[in-house]
Amino acid sequence: MLFRPKYTIDTIYNLKTEKLVQMGIKAVFSDLDNTLLAWNKFETAKEMDRFNQKLAKAGIKLVVISNNNAERVGKVLDPYGIEFVAKSKKPLPFAIIREVEELGLKKDEVMMVGDQLITDMQAGNLAGVKTVLVKPLVETDKWNTRINRFFEKIIFLFLNLKRRIKFEENLRNG
């Protein structure tokens, strides 16, 4: 289904590198705001940096796929050397598809992680990569994200009618 994630976990920081390697994952594509970094708290960047180092040590590349502009994303990620695609136009899948091709990977070697059904999960599903929905790092959102959250509540209702979405502590086979 277009909006249904393949996996659901509490936070991206619960992704275990051993599990990702076992699954054949070579790249984790991630949304930025409220997925890797609280949109309003830049001090959470240290945890993001540790996560990136852990992935790199396991041979897994972290790439941020964000709808934000390059100035905003670069300001946060450049000090940590994390690659990114800005103005990705999610829910369109083109930035994800292009990045998969540029890295020379197969779609089943890539995982898209995000906190929004309408942008992150839809883009990842349309691109044909594995998708992981996480809970937002903070309860508040920027004004433009609040609009998406309103519609997400309706989508969650329909998704839960077929098969309940339950956030796990760790990644499980789905």
TrEMBL record:
Coiled coil: none annotated. Its EC number is 3.1.3.-. CDD domains: HAD_BsYqeG-like. It comes from the Bacteria. One of its GO terms (molecular function) is phosphatidylglycerophosphatase activity. Gene3D superfamilies: HAD superfamily/HAD-like. Transmembrane segments: none annotated. It is an enzyme of class 3 (hydrolase). The keyword Hydrolase applies. Keywords: Hydrolase. The keyword Hydrolase applies. NCBIfam families: HAD-SF-IA-v1 (TIGR01549), HAD-SF-IIIA (TIGR01662), YqeG_hyp_ppase (TIGR01668). This is HAD superfamily phosphatase. It comes from Lactobacillus gigeriorum DSM 23908 = CRBIP 24.85.
